[in-house]
Amino acid sequence: MVNTGTFGSRAPRNFMLPPDNLRPQGVSLNLTPMIDVVFLLIIFFIVSSTMVQQDVSLKLELPEAASGEQFKESETRKITVNIPQPGTMLLGTEPIDPDGFRTYLLRERQLAAKGLEVRIRTDRNVPYGTVEPILVLCAESGVWNVSFSVAKSYR
To answer: How far apart are CA 45 and CA 70, in angstroms?
Structure first.
């Protein structure tokens, strides 16, 4: 007579196998950190592209010009100053005073390794006397790359 123990004739299949913690385990790849990083990059690029669009999202009737150059992308840091009306200066879409703009220019000039460009967007009805202090602030801060956004004249 054969002793079948307490299992009878229905002994488990892994009766002679070692415990799970002693078996060799395969290498597995945990993708969770990589997915987290990818989502963070996606969020970063969405937020940064939205901020860039806000600089030029302010609707202005730009002055017309018969000549000029099309804007070209470069590695220089760009600051957009909007002047919707006399006495109002916006850095992107945020109001700023001349002293704050001077401080901002000096700080950005120190941080910009490839140079700094100031782009001035102004309504066509704003007099030159409103724009001149911005040009003076740029010159005093050592920023010489200043451009004006204009609309192409088809006359």
So the answer is: 25
